[in-house]
Amino acid sequence: MTKSDVPVICLDGPSGVGKGTICLAVAKKLGWHILDSGSLYRITALQVSRDFPEQAINTLDESQLADIAKNLSVSYVEKNNELVIFLGEEDITQLIRNEEIGSIASQVAAISPVREALLARQRAFLTEPGLIADGRDMGTVVFPKAVLKIYLTASAEERAQRRYKQLKDKGIDANLSSLVEELRIRDDRDMNRKTAPLKPALDAIIIDTTELDIKQVTNEVMHWVSQRVA
Ligand code: DC
Fold first, then answer.
1. Res. 96: pLDDT tops 80
2. Which DSSP string corresponds to 79-135?
3. Please, are residues 136 and 15 in contact by the beta-carbon 8 Å criterion?
4. How far is the CA of 106 from the centre of ligand 1 (A)?
5. What number is the average pLDDT over the span 5-21?
6. Rounded-to-10 torsion of CA 182, 186, 188, 190
7. Do residues 85 and 43 touch, judged by C-beta distance below 8 A?
8. Could you tell me the CA-to-CA distances from 209 to 50, 75, 204 in Å, in that order?
9. What pLDDT, on the 0 to 100 scale, is given for residue 83?
10. Pick from 116, 130, 163: nearest CA to 14
């Protein structure tokens, strides 16, 4: 099988819609590889925040930011069914998941040379027997020939509510209305940037998950997988 024959399923959608969870569930059922493309923007954000502490992203030189993205020494290692992410020798799996890094990630992701720098790295994840890629532009830019493109959506209130519950379950204090506000800001930035804005591919199947639980969404995606993937 040549690389271009390896099947890809794209799962795109806004922050907090559950792409990562569904991606893992589907990958497990199929025995395929995963690309969590948001993690690459988050790792870039982490490195930028270390190289330029306290500096606003829009004051930084774009080509310098692109060089950071290009030269990241990242590795993904599977351990006990979990994906562990290393930056050099450092385990940064948890470190990149906070809201601050998410917000910086959304800002560096709006910079075209940064997106360009991460393109080849994302495509390199395409290996047999297949790939499930989650992000914002998987179906529109990174894998336009994907065999199946799914766009997950849900209201900002519902996504914030899910996030709120997750944080509470972990014993972390959170404020629902500021979570809704943060999601709206992130949606606005991701949907309205010049390069590769978040939007469904023309040939994507749109699933509104507002009223659905994880199992129902996974079943719906698996239904489309059975239709499209031999
Ligand atoms: O999915 P996430 O929350 O981990 O992504 C973090 C940020 O990275 C998100 O706000 C937008 C950006 N991103 C992107 O622009 N394109 C992708 N394919 C994935 C993420």
1. yes
2. ETTEEEEEETTEE-TTGGGSHHHHHHHHHHTT-HHHHHHHHHHHHTT--TT-EEEEE
3. no
4. 6
5. 95
6. -170
7. yes
8. 36, 32, 15
9. 87
10. 163
Please give the model's pTM, rounded to 2 decimal places.
0.93
Phi/psi of residue 172, each to 5°?
-95, 130
Structure tokens at 31: 């025995």
Mean pLDDT of 215-227: 97
The bridge status of strand 82-87 relative to strand 74-79 is antiparallel
Compute the distance from residue 110 Cα to the ligand 1 centre, in Å.
10
- Helix/strand/coil for 177: helix
Beta strands 131-135; 33-36: pairing state: parallel
Domains of the chain: 7-223 (3.40.50.300)
226 by DSSP, 3-state: which? Answer: helix
Type of residue numbered 187: D
Q: Is the pLDDT of residue 86 over 80?
A: yes
Our measurement of the distance from residue 13's CA atom to the centroid of its chain's CA atoms, rounded to an integer in Å, reads 8
**Which tens digit of pLDDT belongs to each residue from 123-182?**
999 999 999 999 999 999 999 999 999 999 999 999 999 989 988 988 888 899 999 999
Pocket test for ligand 1, best of 46, 47, 106, 123 (most atoms within 8 A of CB): 106
Encoding tokens for residue 24?
Answer: 């893992």
